Amino acid sequence: ISTRLVVDSDFVISALDRRVFGAFVEHMGRCVYTGIYEPGHPSADAHGFRGDVMALTRELGPTIVRYPGGNFLSGYHWEDGVGPQEARPTRLDLAWLSTETNQFGTNEFMDWCRAVGVEPMFAVNLGTRGPDQARHFLEYCNHPGGTALSDLRRSHGYEAPHGIKFWCLGNELDGPWQICAKTAQEYGRIAQETAKLMRLVDPGVVLAACGSSNHGMPTFGQWEDTVLEHCFDEVDFISLHTYFENPHHSSAEFLANIDQMNRFIEDTVAVADSVAARKHSHKRIMLSFDEWNVWYKARTLDDRRKPGWPQAPRLIEEVYNHEDALAVGGALIVMMNNADRVKTACMAQLVNVIGPIMTEPGGAAWRQTIFHPFAQASRFAHGRVLRPVIRSPGYESKTFPEVPYLCACVVHDDATGQTAIFALNRHLSQEQEITIELRGLGDQQRLVAASELHHADMKAVNTVAAPDTVSPRPNSRVEISGHLVTATFKPGSWNVIVTT
Ligand code: AHR
């Protein structure tokens, strides 16, 4: 098939907020314990942080990491996870029916973030708890000193305040599965009052209210409307969560999830802006897509909960295949093409639990297929996202009459002069001959890098024994003439071209 992509340096969607390359660490399964934290592991440092996982995380390139949950958050007491480790209580975690030892908590996470070089995104429990603990937690973390809570932090060995900027006001409180789920009215009021107190403690914080747990929630739209009716003035962001599934066992249908994600973003923006309109406000609420990924293979109740209150059990350790990597690449393209409103996003999660990185306790760590599109996007996407004009044939899916085979975005960095093109060929049996016209970006473009992620088997996976089965390879079928790039993309492939 033949496709065409045109961008012009003057037609800009927005500067890209690099916080869209976020990840998520929840106290769930083996994400923390035997994931990022495993004292006694051969690669562990003095803190007990796995060195192999830190190295892979740096390579993956998340910019911000959300913590400590997730559903876990809605029953969490932050006080349990600070101070001398031997004095910390062991608790039942009602979200995942696990035993939580609290050997890892806020200060360990901050140490880990500093060691890896990422920004933390924290969340306050608005399930079993409310505004009072939220303001206390923020005071513990961010107040310089001279109060009981800030001095408590100092006595724990953290003299300087943590300066945590980004805070989520609870997690998925619209979901009946959530510990102490709420109606939109109840949550909207609590979010508003919590935000008010948190801003009084630290006016520098950035706050995200919970949107819907997914686009298909029966309360979607109404939830955002009511919640923002209450807390519009107090918050900066509304969150979105989505996990791609494959109910039709069809790769073509599965890859149409990407367009669903785009629709979810458009719908959320529409509701948020209608609240702004009613309030005669110029303020625009931004979107924090703070949980997204593929998750459907390890989704039965057995995958989520094991009997006997185990510690760090194997929960939802989804093994990702090639088509999952394509979906992840497509999701990144969608979010970058919505860079004017999606300013933060977190791939959920980082390690073991629906993670791009897998580990064995005491053993190896390796990259799942979905690691690669994320790492490449985080590495190459800097600067301004240009509005892509795409001409591509498409196919009909159960959800959309026309799904273009080509899904692409273009990001230009004025600082380096580099232009990065990310493109998915959703045609599963035919190659794509693409012509890319880069207008206003320099008349004599040069190729910096070109790679393709492709496998003949859409179900191919990476394992500890064969960790590079699905990984990017150079694409030699890319040519440049002046400002025109021509390339051939294999069927079912994720492609990256960088020019200067
Ligand atoms: O990421 C796994 C779980 O999915 C999170 O705990 C929850 O927020 C979502 O439902």
UniProtKB/TrEMBL annotation:
- Which Pfam families has this protein been placed in? Alpha-L-AF_C, ASD1_dom
Top-level taxonomic group: Bacteria
Task: Return one Gene Ontology term, BP aspect.
Answer: polysaccharide catabolic process
Kindly state which reaction or reactions the protein catalyses. Answer: Hydrolysis of terminal non-reducing alpha-L-arabinofuranoside residues in alpha-L-arabinosides
For this UniProt record, the keywords arranged alphabetically read as follows:
Carbohydrate metabolism, Glycosidase, Hydrolase
Catalytic class of the enzyme: hydrolase
Question: Which molecular function terms from Gene Ontology are attached?
Answer: alpha-L-arabinofuranosidase activity
Which stretches make up the Alpha-L-arabinofuranosidase C-terminal domain? 290-493
Give start-end of the signal peptide.
none
The record's annotation in InterPro entries points to: Alpha-L-AF_C, ASD1_cat, GH, Glyco_hydro_b
List the EC numbers from the record: 3.2.1.55
What family name appears in the similarity comment?
A: Belongs to the glycosyl hydrolase 51 family.
Q: How does it assemble?
A: Homohexamer; trimer of dimers.
Protein name per the record? non-reducing end alpha-L-arabinofuranosidase
